[in-house]
């Protein structure tokens, strides 16, 4: 629903724009992750070690998974998954929420 509304208003594909922007910043994020020290640096180093391939999706995943560490947030509270009818995340200040539609998906994935 959000993807369709975004495309209607802006005339661009939301997922494509998101992935493009993430790819633009991913290299710099990885450099920042490698430069971090202390507890945060250890967590980020573990994430970077988990990256097994040069697959863009895997690199995007590592970049996104490192964000809460970099921002000082709890990673378990930062990423949530929900169904369409679940409104329990209304109090979330910042985070990434994946909503699993109860019906067929209306967004096209383009990577």
From TrEMBL:
<protein>
    <submittedName>
        <fullName>Uncharacterized protein</fullName>
    </submittedName>
</protein>
């Amino acid at each position: 629903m959000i993807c369709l509304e975004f495309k209607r208003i802006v005339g661009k594909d939301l997922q494509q724009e998101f992935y493009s922007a993430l790819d633009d910043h991913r290299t710099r994020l990885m450099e920042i992750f490698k430069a971090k020290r202390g507890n945060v640096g250890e967590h980020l180093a573990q994430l970077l070690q988990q990256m097994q391939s040069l697959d863009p999706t895997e690199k995007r995943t590592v970049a996104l998974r490192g964000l809460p560490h970099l921002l000082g947030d709890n990673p378990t509270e930062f990423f949530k998954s929900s169904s369409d009818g679940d409104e329990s995340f209304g109090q979330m200040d910042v985070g990434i929420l994946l909503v699993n539609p109860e019906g067929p998906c209306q967004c096209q994935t383009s990577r």
